[in-house]
Amino acid sequence: MTVNHGTQRVVTGARYGLRDWLAQRVSAALMALWTLIVVLQVIFTSGPIGYEAWAGIFVPHWMKGLTLAVFIALAWHAWVGMRDVWMDYVKITGVRLALHVFTIVWLVACLGWAIEVLWRL
Q: Are 110 and 75 in contact (CB under 8 A)?
């Protein structure tokens, strides 16, 4: 969207507002819930917590599905936050665009890696 402020032309992608505010809160709540579930499972696991016990937490399909949802929520949460940082503090449009693209590529790569690790267990 292009906004004119006097004689200076400002190119921004702002006006996300409530949708992104809500996405940040919902994704944070989902991540907090998942963290609580994992912590409770660790607390109530008998014996030492080794690789087998840790991997065993993620064996049930409901936990894999919830963890996948958390990874997606984390990527979305990070995207909204970083996009806002780039829009607020990087004034050169080309650099900001490059940072947006880099952030998207990085987050998609991290999400792909997380999915590979999760479904390989």
A: yes
Which residue type does 61 have?
H
Number of domains in the chain: 1
Q: What does the block give as tokens for 102? A: 């880099």
Q: Which residues contact 78 (CB under 8 A, 6 or more apart)?
A: 103, 107
What's the pTM? Answer: 0.79
Q: Is residue 1 part of a domain?
A: no
Give the span between the Cα atoms of 19 and 31, in whole angstroms. Answer: 18
Residues near 69 by beta carbon (within 8 Å), at least 6 away in sequence: 30
- Residue pair 69/13 in contact (Cβ under 8 Å)? The answer is no
| Domain span at 27 | 18-120
* Domain annotation covers residue 12: no
pLDDT tens-digit map of 94-119: 999 999 999 999 999 999 999 999 88
Q: What is the pLDDT of residues 42-71, one digit of tens each?
A: 999 888 889 999 989 999 999 999 999 999
Q: What is the CATH number of the domain that holds 113?
A: 1.20.1300.10
